[in-house]
Amino acid sequence: MAMANASYELPPLPDYTLQPLPPLLPWISDAHLALALPIIGYWALSGFFHLIDVYDLFPQYRLHTPAEVLKRNHVSRWEVFRDVIIQQVIQTMFGLLMNMFDEEPMFGKDDYNVAWYAQKIRLAQRAIPVCLAMVGLNPTALASKVAGSQPMIAGALAGGRYPGLYEVARIGGVETVVPTFALWEMLVAKILYWYAVPALQFLAGILAVDTWEYFLHRAMHMNKWLYVTFHSRHHRLYVPYAYGALYNHPFEGFLLDTLGTGLAYLLTGMTVRQSIWFFTGSTLKTVDDHCGYALPFDPLQHMTSNNAAYHDIHHQSWGIKTNFSQPFFTFWDRFLGTRWNGDVKLKYERSRHVAQQKMEQERENEGRGGVVGVEGEEAVSSNGSASASARVQVKAAAAPLLSARKKSSSISQSPSGNLKGLRTKVNESLHGRGANVLGVERSH
């Protein structure tokens, strides 16, 4: 069959047949995995930082001392745990509802989509001769000059015309000679389809989430009613910790996190499988931003300048009207002048000092209570006739114990005994006195 009979200027797109897409895991659908994996990731990463807290593994990288954890937060860990679970239940129910409207994932169209991108690459080459002519070059002469040694370059310079690229294809049951794609066109098309476009979708999703959360978050601070009614709950955590990342009012949690990421997913046209990684990545980043550590080996803290140290400033009373950006980039804070630019070292030192003073005062008060109890017993044993000298002796005996007790609880001990006096209290706060998991304390 002669090439002159070919009726196609562009290589035709292949036929395809759609089939149901098998799930990544045989025992759970991809849609349900997209709901479960972010929650699993949330508690797995939170558990990692929780163990670091309990065993005081990296005290040199703490943003706050254990004394601050105990004395500055205005909410118990049980309340935090409970509210996070509530938000995740709402998030899951909303996701299940949305899944009812999603079409069943299909596959079988990948080759068609790659060829579609290749067609657009071929069409884009038609602009090359026009651009060359605009700068005074002769595209025909250039194509002729390199045709012998570089035929692919010559075809591109000629506007996407490749005289030797034809193949016989069966179209509508009839064999027809049609143009075909150059190898480089197919390679670029595959890169676009499999890597570049998904990366752009992720980037667009990140920008959408950052924009949504910045303006809603800022509105929660600028509007007194919104702050008092909803957002103030999150700011009971002056010293954030990992599993408090989603501690919010249920309505705020739905509006900021669930709806924000859901809209980003829909607007960018991600597939369900893409959403698995997008939702999980966003969740892990949010947890990491509240972890309370500036770990040099944590990759999530070095992806952008928006990390635990950056967001922690927003949780302090002096930085609460700054650093609204969450959870990825900080460009809105920079563009709109809400980024904290001052020195924070002295402010953090002052907070540590005040918290430590409160801790020491509490220890001292507990010690004095113990002395009074001893005096009372002495008085009863002598039928109310204990002398002043006996009370002095009791106080003198109790003084060294009190001094040693205060010394053991100081947070300025040597690294070998890092904060051991406080570790017991932190552990009780983290685990509950009944050693329950994740700080779920028993009600008293």
From TrEMBL:
One of its GO terms (biological process) is lipid biosynthetic process. One of its GO terms (molecular function) is oxidoreductase activity. GO terms for cellular component: membrane. Residues 202-338 form the Fatty acid hydroxylase domain. The chain crosses the membrane at residues 31-52, 192-216. It is found in: Membrane. The keyword Membrane applies. Its main location: membrane. Keywords: Membrane, Transmembrane, Transmembrane helix. Signal peptide: none annotated. Pfam families: FA_hydroxylase. The keyword Cytoplasm does not apply. PANTHER family: STEROL DESATURASE. This is Fatty acid hydroxylase domain-containing protein. It comes from Westerdykella ornata. The lineage of its organism: Eukaryota, Fungi, Dikarya, Ascomycota, Pezizomycotina.
